[in-house]
Design goal:
The complex is a heterodimer. Chain A is mainly α. Chain A has 10 helices and 3 strands; from the N terminus they run ααβαβααβααααα. Chain B has 7 helices and 10 strands. The longest helix of chain B is centred in the C-terminal third of the chain and has 16 residues. The chains are: A mainly alpha, B alpha/beta. The interface between A and B is medium-sized, with 21 and 24 residues.
């Protein structure tokens, strides 16, 4: 067989598979809808999981942003070259994203500019505030090490060295880790459960068509020729289900965030329209993969020659 | 002519000391030896459970022998790789008692189906399917669904599907089992015509009248063994006539 003839045969087989998949989807509408429904429900659960994960990671990012900045209070009698020297040392540390020196005057100006401090600022005599080195640490897990480094520095204010809150940071780190594990675990369970459900739904659909498969095998169809239409039908089912799930999630996302903010105001959850594109990609890919894998496994027993 | 296969080897089928024992312990076939030359017309006869259908299943490689070898056109079926099996089945045409038509496809689509799986181009599919339907006398019924056909017509569609790809061999398992005598005879005429064009036909049957009338080669199976192999045989053994071994 020439390359051209083989390619033509392949295209004809692909066209046959697409036609068969399309016809079979509509001919067995009840079973197809059952498969769409189960995949939709699974994808909604998966999508909700992704949305919650994304929302919390946004919130956590906000917290991380705050706690990854550590203020090192400089003792009043520290010579400026010593401060600059330490600033330089910190700036060249790979764990540090940036260091900013805030003089006593700037610190006071910042303090009095904050309306929350208005009454306190009026009662101030002189400038009791320390000069500061504000250090932005790249990774939350390195904040403790930078804090330890600062405490060993000769120029630090020994009565109030830094504003580092070790417990809070550790808890944040733990929470973020646990949320990551929980999300991944939930997603893994969803994937396993969904493959089993989809596989069984499709196996039921295939069982109704076992005679067709038997005839296909008897007239000399290859395993892939028999399997192809089922896998394509699975992908089609998955994509339809993903579209429905996506539409429902897109509609429900903004009001759900609003409701959450009304109910639990202290967690700064926000609506992120940019996440919709990545959610759409994940759901469509997930739906197609789920349909394809479910069909592949579901049809295997009947297809085997 | 599309329906005329070209043959290049003899013999077509050879069973060599073939045994078939099912996992339950039932011995369906015991030490079967036979040779079917190219272009032969063979009836497999015998009581129910004798082993005829097992022989058919072995021939289409739905099952493998427990012992012994089966060669078809020089290829040993027991050693055939799974991926080669579809290509082997494309060389044979199969007809069953229940016709095995797909109810949701029209007559034309059922016949064309056998060519679609080969990836044949549309033009060829159309002309061959039309030719096959014409051969079995069903021209004009292309768009009818199997449920609207009589049993005989359904079996004609099955025969058209079996011969549409011009196979070298037709294997039929009780093809007249559900038909009245007149229709069964019409169906047999079709098989004879296919055979006269050179195709080898192996047919398991219970139809005594047809076997007796046609006087073709008859292999009688009893309790999993070949009881008799007559070149020009009858359904039941004729004690007055000396048995002639075919080979």
């Amino acid at each position: 067989m020439t390359v051209l003839a083989a390619t033509m045969t392949m295209f004809r087989n692909l066209r046959f598979a697409l036609n068969s998949a399309w016809q079979s989807f509509w001919r067995n509408l009840a079973v197809s809808l059952a498969a769409v429904l189960s995949i939709t429900l699974i994808l909604i659960l998966g999508g909700v999981n992704l949305l919650i994960g994304h929302a919390f990671s946004q919130v956590l990012d906000g917290f991380r942003e705050k706690v990854s900045v550590i203020s090192i209070n400089v003792a009043d009698d520290t010579p400026l070259p010593t401060v600059y020297g330490f600033q330089q040392q910190l700036a060249s540390d790979p764990r540090v994203a940036g260091v900013k020196y805030i003089t006593k005057e700037q610190a006071l100006a910042n303090f009095t500019a904050d309306p929350n401090n208005a009454i306190l600022a009026q009662q101030l005599q002189g400038n009791p505030l320390d000069a500061k080195l504000e250090v932005r640490v790249r990774a939350l897990s390195d904040v403790a090490a930078i804090d330890a480094l600062a405490r060993q520095w000769s120029g630090v204010d020994p009565t109030n060295p830094t504003n580092y809150q070790g417990d809070f940071v550790n808890r944040m780190l733990q929470l973020s880790q646990w949320l990551g594990y929980a999300g991944a675990g939930l997603l893994a369970i969803l994937v396993i459960v969904s493959v089993v459900i989809v596989m069984n739904t499709i196996r039921t659909a295939v069982f109704h068509r076992r005679k067709e498969i038997e005839v296909m095998k008897l007239v000399g169809a290859t395993e892939w020729f028999v399997r192809g239409p089922f896998v394509i039908e699975g992908v089609m089912t998955g994509l339809i289900a993903a579209s429905i799930a996506l539409a429902l999630l897109v509609i429900a996302y903004p009001p759900a965030v609003q409701q959450f903010r009304n109910d639990i105001a202290f967690i700064p959850l926000s609506y992120d329209p940019g996440f919709i594109a990545s959610l759409a990609r994940d759901l469509l890919l997930g739906g197609a993969a789920l349909g394809a894998v479910g069909s592949y496994i579901g049809v295997r027993r009947f297809v085997k020659l | 002519m599309v329906l005329t296969p070209d043959f290049d080897s003899r013999p077509v089928i050879s069973f060599q000391h073939v045994w078939k024992t099912y996992p339950t312990g039932t011995e369906a076939l015991r030490d079967i030896n036979l040779v079917v030359p190219e272009g032969d017309f063979v009836f497999l006869v015998g009581p129910s459970g004798a082993g005829k259908s097992t022989m058919v299943r072995l021939l289409i490689r739905e099952e493998k022998p427990s012992k012994g070898k089966i060669f078809v056109e020089g290829v040993e079926l027991g050693r055939m790789k799974r991926r080669k099996l579809p290509y082997y089945r494309r060389k044979i045409g199969l007809v069953f008692q229940d016709s095995k038509l797909l109810p949701n496809l029209t007559v034309y689509e059922n016949v064309a189906f056998a060519l679609r799986v080969l990836g044949e181009p549309d033009r060829l599919v159309q002309s061959r399917a039309a030719e096959a339907l014409d051969t079995v006398g069903l021209a004009g019924k292309e768009q009818t669904y199997p449920s609207n056909l009589s049993g005989g017509e359904q079996q004609r569609v099955a025969i058209a599907r079996a011969l549409v790809h011009a196979p070298r061999m037709i294997i039929a398992d009780e093809p007249t089992g559900n038909l009245d005598p007149a229709t069964a005879w019409e169906i047999m005429q079709l098989f004879l015509r296919i055979n006269s064009r050179g195709a080898t036909v192996v047919m398991a049957t219970h139809n005594r009248e047809i076997v007796d009338l046609l006087r073709r080669r008859v292999i009688a199976i009893d309790a999993g063994q070949i009881a008799r192999d007559d070149r020009s045989g009858r359904y039941h053994d004729d004690v007055s006539k000396p048995q002639i071994r075919a080979q």
